[in-house]
Design brief:
Blueprint (H helix, E strand, L loop, with lengths): L1 H61 L20 E3 L5 E9 L2 E12 L7 E7 L2 E3 L6 E3 L9 E9 L6 E7 L8 E8 L2 E6 L3 E4 L8 E8 L11 E2 L2
Antiparallel strand pairs: 1-2, 2-3, 3-4, 5-6, 7-8, 8-11, 9-10, 9-12, 12-13
């Protein structure tokens, strides 16, 4: 009888040890999963912030006088430093050149980088001086006709709500562009939100509001086209 009790007690101890081991394994897996989720969240947060910074810097440059757009020790010469750091530690670098040697058009590249990002985020745009039209007193911007914008941008679907909302847009390439196409910039409410090599993009705005979109093309020489037609959710 005593031997049976001891046997029973022994089995109960083994079962307890197995339970502890299984619980420890599960806890380690859970901690690892949480750790990976936190890392992914931080990477996404950094990438999103980089896009915001690049867009803000381009807006600042677009608001500058054409003659001021350039590097303080570069050609064209201007008031921009080659690089600086944002308040939250992002490295921001500028490069300004004349497009194809034409002093009437400047090509500006803004790159943004911080730890956790796989590569620098690089955004390129083209700026020409404002000129006075001979037929009108209104000012207008010189636009190169060589860099055609995307065609037929459309909202394909708008599903879900709040954090689960998904907006799918698609577009077409222009007919017979003069330059090879590298990628596309996606703008929501006039702010750059992403860059893709595909002719489709699914946005997750995390909001039930109305949004407008347009798309530009980044050509092989780094020039950004004008915007496509604009579409708006309803």
């Amino acid at each position: 009888m005593l031997n049976r009790i001891r046997q029973k007690d022994g089995f109960t101890l083994i079962e307890a040890l197995i339970s502890i081991i299984l619980l420890s394994i599960f806890s380690l897996m859970l901690v690892q999963g949480i750790r990976m989720a936190v890392i992914a969240f931080n990477i996404n947060k950094v990438n999103t912030r980089a896009v915001t910074i690049a867009n803000e810097e381009l807006e600042k440059i677009r608001s500058m006088s054409f003659n001021d757009i350039g590097l303080s020790e570069g050609n064209p010469q201007g008031i921009l430093d080659g690089q600086k750091y944002s308040e939250d530690g992002f490295l921001i670098e500028y490069n300004v050149i004349y497009k194809n040697g034409d002093s009437r058009i400047k090509q500006i590249m803004v790159s943004v980088y911080k730890e956790l990002m796989k590569d620098k985020l690089e955004v390129v745009t083209e700026i020409a001086p404002l000129t006075l039209s001979e037929e009108s007193s209104e000012t207008s911007t010189t636009i190169s006709q060589d860099y055609l914008p995307p065609r037929n941008l459309a909202i394909i679907s708008d599903t879900g709500s709040d954090i689960n909302r998904r907006i799918l847009i698609e577009w077409e390439d222009p007919y017979n562009p003069d330059f090879a196409i590298n990628s596309y910039n996606i703008y929501r409410n006039s702010s750059l939100i992403s860059n893709t090599i595909l002719r489709t993009y699914e946005d997750s705005p995390n909001d039930n509001g109305d949004f407008s979109y347009f798309v530009t093309i980044i050509y092989s020489d780094g020039t950004e086209s004008a915007g496509s037609n604009e579409v708006t959710t309803q």
